Amino acid sequence: MIRCLFRAVWNGEGSPRSFFRAQEREHSLADAMEQLQVANLSLFADQEQLFLYYECLDTPVLPESLLAETGERLAEWPGGAPGRRWVPMTDIFHYQHPVSNSQWTRVHKERTPYGRIALLKPEQTASYIYYHYQYQEEKPGDGDKYGMIGMHENVLFFYSELPETITPVLYEGRLKTSLKPENWAEVMEPHFIKWEGAPDGQDIWRKLMLVLEVRCPAKRRGEQHA
User: Fold this and answer.
1) How open is the CA angle 60-66-71, to the nearest 5 degrees?
2) Model confidence pTM above 0.85
3) 222 neighbors 57 (Cβ within 8 angstroms)
4) What is the spatial distance between Cα 39 and Cα 3, in angstroms, rounded to a whole number?
5) Least confident of 90-94, 186-190, 220-224
6) Which residues contact 114 (CB under 8 A, 6 or more apart)?
7) In a 3-state reduction of DSSP, which class is residue 25?
């Protein structure tokens, strides 16, 4: 099981929602996911910014293989291969990590993917990652099983699912210390650039619009491998 987070910028006509929610495009995506053994894909938007989450059951799959029809509707992202339109986001925090495909199976049939974004002060990057690695390895399983934070540049993308899934972990964290601050929110606040004019409660973490969700019904090969 490989969890993937990517970021892109919409550069096409109309809205991402109208483009991706077209029935024929959803069917095409579902077919590609089944063929490539990809499950639980969710696409979120914040104006022209797009954030993508999905799970590869066997081998890594690039977004271009799943969303080939997006083409030039996405802006080209410099700094990598020519024509790059999706950039990977680094997993800097997760409440749990998969140990097998079967262990990662959802228990809530009625669930909703949930996404938020935040802006990190560049000079606070090392501190933010330090605290989150400490939290992740001291208290694995302390929140939603599927919750994770990806980072690209100074943008943070938090993916989770509602209702939360709280289950015991099947592994031990890598740290035996107990240094996670008790006043977590207070310690975290100075790390962020706050959003101007944000709705109440969203001055740090702003909610994303769920554009598309596809749950692939493909049979899971390699059940014992994560």
Assistant:
1) 125
2) yes
3) yes
4) 10
5) 220-224
6) 159, 160, 161, 162, 207, 210
7) helix
pLDDT score of 25: 80
Spatial contact of 186 and 177, defined as CB atoms under 8 Å apart: no
Closest among 161, 178, 204, 212 to 50, alpha carbons compared: 212
Task: Kindly report, residue by residue over 109-134, the tens digit of the pLDDT.
Answer: 899 999 999 999 999 999 999 999 99
Strand (E) or helix (H) holding 84 = none
Distance between CA atoms of 159 and 39, rounded to whole angstroms? 15
DSSP 221: S
Tokens of 119: 């802006």
Structure tokens at 142: 């302390």
134-139 average pLDDT score: 98
Q: How many angstroms separate the CA atoms of 62 and 4, rounded?
A: 9
Half-sphere exposure at residue 5, Cβ-oriented, CA atoms within 13 angstroms: 22
Among positive and negative, which fits the CA dihedral 59, 62, 63, 67? negative
- The answer to whether residues 149 and 128 touch, using CB atoms and an 8 Å cutoff, is no
Q: How far apart are CA 116 and CA 209, in angstroms?
A: 9
